Amino acid sequence: MSVHLPPPNPTELFPIAGVRIGVTEAGIRKAGRKDLSVVLLDDGASVAGVFTQNRFCAAPVQLCREHLALGEGIRAMLINTGNANAGTGEDGLIRALHTCQALADKLGVTKQQVLPFSTGVIMETLPIERIEAGLDAAIADAKADNWLRAAEAIMTTDTVPKAFGAQVMIDGVRVSITGISKGAGMIRPNMATMLGFMATDACVSRGLMKQLALELAEGSFNRVTVDGDTSTNDSFVVIATNQAAHAPITSLDSAAGQALKTAMLGVARQLAQAIVRDGEGATKFITIVVEGGKTSAECRQVAYAIAHSPLVKTAFFASDPNLGRILAAVGYAGIADLDQTGIDLYLNEVLVARKGGRNPDYREEDGQRVMQQAEITVRVSLGRGAAFDTVWTCDLSHDYVSINADYRS
Amino acid sequence: MSVHLPPPNPTELFPIAGVRIGVTEAGIRKAGRKDLSVVLLDDGASVAGVFTQNRFCAAPVQLCREHLALGEGIRAMLINTGNANAGTGEDGLIRALHTCQALADKLGVTKQQVLPFSTGVIMETLPIERIEAGLDAAIADAKADNWLRAAEAIMTTDTVPKAFGAQVMIDGVRVSITGISKGAGMIRPNMATMLGFMATDACVSRGLMKQLALELAEGSFNRVTVDGDTSTNDSFVVIATNQAAHAPITSLDSAAGQALKTAMLGVARQLAQAIVRDGEGATKFITIVVEGGKTSAECRQVAYAIAHSPLVKTAFFASDPNLGRILAAVGYAGIADLDQTGIDLYLNEVLVARKGGRNPDYREEDGQRVMQQAEITVRVSLGRGAAFDTVWTCDLSHDYVSINADYRS
Description:
The structure is a homodimer of 409-residue chains.
Chain A: E1 19-24, E2 36-41, E3 46-51, H1 59-70, E4 76-81, H2 89-107, E5 114-119, H3 128-140, H4 147-153, E6 162-170, E7 173-182, E8 195-200, H5 206-218, E9 235-240, H6 255-277, E10 285-293, H7 296-308, H8 310-317, H9 324-331, E11 344-347, E12 350-354, E13 357-358, H10 364-371, E14 375-381, E15 387-394, H11 398-406
Parallel strand pairs in A: 4-5, 8-9, 10-14
Antiparallel strand pairs in A: 1-2, 2-4, 3-9, 6-7, 7-8, 10-15, 11-12, 11-14, 12-13
Helix pairs in contact in A: 1-2, 2-3, 5-6, 7-9
């Protein structure tokens, strides 16, 4: 199930000048489902990506890093679901590169101008013959208004496709932003999400793209978690096709840079939160705000301890205000000099604990009322500084266990 | 349910000269169940404890630390289940101290000679009037062969009591060791387990007790995890009553010290592993050995990443050899310079992955055969050193979610 996550509205998924997308059924793992996508970019696009920090990063992630570093100008992306091509050693690298070459040959570009992406089961051999057999159909399907079909074609355990768009005025010119993402389990992105792609027709200098991608990831995908399992394949790619008629943005601190970044961050947050709302088995969407810290890093550390606690997550699933579990998670989050007598805990507007103990005015029915809602904010004040941070997560339900006990069968 | 965990054998629970235990039904949370225990110690016992590192440590934990530090000689322990007296602020400290005073008055000792222990729900007010009303009955019940009843009286979500004993010859004298523990969820001890008590009649100098308790905890309770949630109330207490007729042990490195420590570690490991075997909803007992590391700390770090991964745990529950999830956990464990091409993965004797990729000779049916067993060893070789460490854990099942979604109801 998913928490308040309607399917995307196709009219808000703006075509981006310079981007065409094609989708096909290549039968990579199962027959009869869209599982292969190509994203074709006009010459001149600025592209940057951020990728998983998992040391077991997948072969396609390794190639993406290499190809982006070469700077030849990315012209295509090749995305398959059904197989992660991770934990596949040297053979996995050879296979991923082979698919880049095959697509490059058909497009008349170099293999280093192709970025490969894979998602699905880990430690299984990538069936490159099926992928390569599907390329012609995917290319033939390519058009500008295919974002929704691509969002569908990258799904694994996702129950709904995830796609959002926005428009913003830059120097009097309307520019468009569209993004898609996938992911529901193995979600605790570290620099990126499972798979996320965003494109804009705005003009952004190439040197600025990496910073833009990092800042967008930090404010969105790097603040969500479903199960604390950082994937081997997390990839988040930002594309600026530079086709809008405004002067190129050369600083994110300029008025135009700020306007674009704010609009793009809005879309990135929607994409990231959509992953949590569609978290495997999720019945609750939980915002965890930790404030009053010495640093935002320690606020994040506490927020993630709460977000990853199976006991906290099952209490939310049960709508049971067993809120001492939140205090326990705060206590073991790893802040060595944390003073429990400085800590306040709110559930939405309800003050549950004050100065480390139960608030005398707290009534269980007030906690119960909040716990029954589908969207809940936990707010912890550490009482030791002015820093804060926010993390979004979901609960842990029977369906999470079912989905992950049955995923391959 | 529990994994291969029969109820304790009463004939192996040796009475310890100098220790008497009494149990009663005080109605602390629910009527009609044993929930209050007193452990009475003869004068002259050496006592040491290790306690949770959770910064939200419970009021009784704070008092245990203070009372042990005063060194007046511990004469009694007071243990209740049904209420953790954690997250209760200043009021919780006052209440815990009040119960110590009440027991001390009845025994003619000081309140600082009493150690209090609580386990149960967090952030609820300790009902001291019920505890104090039960003291006379508990004291009247005190006898030397009550270890099993005490193991029952400290249970919460445990399905079986946990108690083990051993005997060992020291300088030609037979000494006895008996221990009990409780815990099934909120288990990721950091210096101790939820509650563990061990006693021996061996003669151990007081100055040695802290070191002995630490070394026992490090080799047992500090290597188990059920759900990664470090409790607010973890306490592990080691008692030597000094009543056996051998010369006092003054060094753990002496022959007598080694013999005693080895025997006690055997009991401590059984107690710790019993907690995992009785882990909430557990259907599998999993030993995770990580070797070939630069330090044992990094081996532990990797072992815990595997042990805490919900995806790995649900795969074990499903008996599904979806073993790439283990590689993913190794990859995100936080070793920044880990080289995936050095890593081997074994499931029992089956070589699953070699040099970071799928072993060409690995057949899924071999992995499947191991996964179906109730006791499984995961062995990861990091290929970068000679250090190793071991962690014990269990799987994540529907029953874990049910138990923790329903715990308070």
